[in-house]
Amino acid sequence: RKEVEQDPGPFNVPEGATVAFNCTYSNSASQSFFWYRQDCRKEPKLLMSVYSSGNEDGRFTAQLNRASQYISLLIRDSKLSDSATYLCVVNNDMRFGAGTRLTVKP
Amino acid sequence: NAGVTQTPKFQVLKTGQSMTLQCAQDMNHEYMSWYRQDPGMGLRLIHYSVGAGITDQGEVPNGYNVSRSTTEDFPLRLLSAAPSQTSVYFCASSFTGGNVDEQFFGPGTRLTVL
């Protein structure tokens, strides 16, 4: 089993839709979690950190479920500009998931 | 600030050739790292450094060397290029460590080994 797994997608959603991605991890001792966004042929950029109590940044909500060992990213009211690949990152070893590709269509 | 810069942007090598990928940052970050990104594999850590003079291996270090003589620079050397090293290489830096801190990535180097 991979240490960090994501559904590769692609997720194709209409503008205004709500979409959620999960990222599962195998190391129960993992302490830190992040979501990065990567546009096509560009470098990854931090979207948000994931805190134990969950956190929100505008239309984006990140949550952590330690019991089931996954983190999630919820995007509300999707915009065309949200089209990208979303990478989760877990723990001290800086393990990246392979990414989930999102396409938001008009 | 220029942030994290990488050169070259593109490179084609023949099997057995050696080369150095350059990475520099002007944010006075202590932590720097190199990743490779392959389709369906995500980013994998090659080597990292927690400060000048200190380097350590990541998940996939074989075939690569690094050095950190200054805070600003963290070059990655391919000793004898192989087709399996065809990939996109990203350099990143952060103030402390990528496990607790935002990592800033360079624009990447697209390497093809024939």
Describe this structure in words.
The complex is a heterodimer of chains A (106) and B (114). By secondary structure, chain A is mainly β. Helices cover 0% and strands 54% of the residues of chain A. Chain A is built from no helices and 11 strands. In chain A, a hairpin with a 5-residue loop joins strand 4 (33-38) and strand 5 (44-50). Chain B has 114 residues and is mostly beta strands. Chain B has strands spanning 4-7, 10-13, 19-25, 31-38, 42-51, 54-57, 64-66, 76-78, 87-94, 104-105, 109-113. In chain B, strands 2, 4, 5, 6, 9, 10 and 11 form a 7-stranded mixed β-sheet that branches. The mean pLDDT of chain B is 94. The A-B interface holds A 4, 8, 31-32, 34, 42-46, 49, 87, 89, 91-99 and B 33, 35, 40-45, 48, 58-59, 90, 97-100, 102-103, 105-108.
At a glance:
Chain A is mainly beta and 106 residues long.
| Coarse structural class of chain B | mainly beta
Q: What radius of gyration of chain A results from the CA coordinates?
A: 13 Å
Based on Cα principal axes, name the global outline of chain A.
globular
Strand elements of chain B, count: 11
Uncertain residue ranges of chain A: none
Order of helices and strands of chain B: EEEEEEEEEEE
The string of secondary-structure elements of chain A, in order, is EEEEEEEEEEE
Largest β-sheet summary of chain B: 7 strands, mixed
Keywords:
A: 106 residues; mainly beta; B: 114 residues; globular
Topology readout:
The complex is a heterodimer of chains A (106) and B (114).
Chain A: E1 4-6, E2 11-14, E3 19-25, E4 33-38, E5 44-50, E6 55-57, E7 60-65, E8 70-75, E9 84-90, E10 95-96, E11 100-105
Parallel strand pairs in A: 2-11
Antiparallel strand pairs in A: 1-3, 3-8, 4-5, 4-9, 6-7, 7-8, 9-10, 9-11
Chain B: E1 4-7, E2 10-13, E3 19-25, E4 31-38, E5 42-51, E6 54-57, E7 64-66, E8 76-78, E9 87-94, E10 104-105, E11 109-113
